[in-house]
Give the backbone structure.
Amino acid sequence: MPDTRRTSGVRQRGALDPRGGSRASDSQPFPVSAAWRPGDPVGRRQFVEVGAVELEAGGVLPDVTLAYETWGTLNERRDNAVLVLHALTGDSHVTGPAEEGHLSAGWWQDMVGPGAPIDTDRYFVVAPNVFGGCQGSTGPASPAPDGAPWGGRFPMLTVRDQVAAEIELTRALGLDGWHLVVGASMGGLRALEWAVLGPEAGIAVECLTVIAATAQSTGDQIAWAHPQLTAIRSDPRFRDGDYYDAAPGDGPHVGLGIARQIAHTTYRSAVELDARFGRIPQGGEDPMRGGRFAVQSYLDHHAAKLARRFDANSYVVLTESMLTHDLGRDRGGAVTALRAVTARTLVVAVDTDRLFLPDESVRIAEHVPRAEPATMLRSDFGHDGFLVEFGQLGPVVGDFLSRARPRST
């Protein structure tokens, strides 16, 4: 738990205060959960009931709903549909302002829209909130059959389960294929799974773009995730996942914030953190007298920011789905599964990524039969390069799409 003591007149402003405030100037307590709940403003979301989903780890989750957003128009040939898959703490709000119903502006504003690389004047773009998420799709904050939130009763999900639900969304939209499935980070894991599971289910995937991802989670990735999960579960306000009826400020925001701090360190590079912050103190704080370094304040900021827009249970469920990701499970191994992908494939890596190492992207490109050589983004921003380096990523994706454009666009 971050120290909020006063030492020589210095207060650690920005730390996650267990009483609920995140900064001295912020008197509002943290929400118990920022999950979207029935009755909240809908915003631009649409909803599809996909029914019961049989889970890979066993059992069936009934009455699954997926929230999604769309942009552009489906053409008469129905061959210009693009599926965009978000990362761990993203959602369906790919592009658009922060507004009623949407706590944050779109996370890929420069990539999706009129005239953008994924051009909504040409393509019909669909972005679902992932199954197990917290922004409208069925997840731990959703009502169980007894009317109470699932909470700690919510089952283990895998990436394959998430894609199975998205296949039912595709059918509900009246589509029998996607011109492009694109995802980065956790979305890239789902994109890979789509390239195998989709065709098996009769849903064609013509083109595939996998950004900063891997064919199977590594020991290093599992190791980084373990203290994140421990931080959340060790927060006494987590209550084994059953915290939704607690008062504001009495939820597991401290554990969730610490998890975010650990994760954010893997999202950026050592080069950036040292060049940007180094050993500079934060404002007038003195690290020798209870104050923070600037980089500590930066991590505190991101911890508080996530605690105000996400849900701790969903963070656990989605993180565990990433850890169990293995494209080759029950398919003869990862290489065999990659060789079964038939889509035209673009693989993109970030050269300073220390979460999903560039070699893992190269491996995907080497074994997918119709993959182009892996494209390497040069960036000091690490894994988050896929969110930052639009000047590099945009032209790469745009060029790939232009060379694989549906005949009717």
Q: What stands out?
A: The beta strands are 46-54, 60-71, 81-85, 112-113, 118-119, 124-128, 177-184, 204-211, 344-350, 375-377. Residues 1-14, 18-25 have pLDDT under 50 and may be disordered. Residues 158 and 357 are 22 Å apart (CA to CA).
